[in-house]
Task: structure prediction
Amino acid sequence: MGPDADYLRQLEARIRLLEAENRALRVASLASNNADMLSYVVGKAPVTPAMAGGAIQWMVRAMRLNPLHPDYYWSSLGIVLFTLGRYAEAADAYHQAPDFLFYALQKS
Result:
């Protein structure tokens, strides 16, 4: 395979990422009052720096919509904060969900 094949693979990967980002934005806009769906989108969508700002807003909104939310909401918020390099805030979010993190680490 030559350099053109490498370029095409990279281009295809970028297109898939953009498509995934667009799907996440669409779901979040359609389900803006559904806490579980907002959390699901953040947990499943590719968390890129371009999407992280919106993802933080979605998680904060989800937590407000469902004040008795499960621990994984905190974990999802921690992932987004970590992606942005906001490590102290990410650690604080992870500390809100110690049981969930312990379970996730045991599965990996």
Helices lie at 3-30, 35-44, 49-65, 72-83, 87-95, 98-107.
